[in-house]
Write a structure and sequence with these properties.
four-stranded antiparallel β-sheet, mainly beta, 0% helix, four-stranded mixed β-sheet, OB fold (Dihydrolipoamide Acetyltransferase, E2P), 82 residues
Length: 82
């Protein structure tokens, strides 16, 4: 008689729901006020002119215009120029 339960493959076959992180509007694309540009966990990108950072580190546009990605002092900056 077996003393161990059979190790089924289905019982431990779970995965977490993906969070849909990443860049939503790329450089050169036109955005409107309130559009989400980047969804991220932690500050991989920092807000510049025309953008702000939400409580969950989401960067969104506060001006209408084109998205630009720059580097300043070793940080990746996201800006929206009208």
């Amino acid at each position: 008689m077996a003393h161990k339960k059979a190790g089924g493959s289905v019982g431990k076959n779970r995965d977490s729901i993906s969070k849909r992180l990443g860049v939503k509007h790329y450089g050169g694309e036109v955005v409107k006020v309130g559009n989400i540009i980047i969804r991220q966990k932690g500050s991989h990108f920092y807000p510049g002119v025309g953008t702000q950072k939400g409580n969950d580190y989401t960067i969104y546009a506060v001006l209408d215009g084109k998205v630009h990605f720059n580097k300043k002092h070793g940080r990746r900056i996201v800006e929206v120029n009208g």
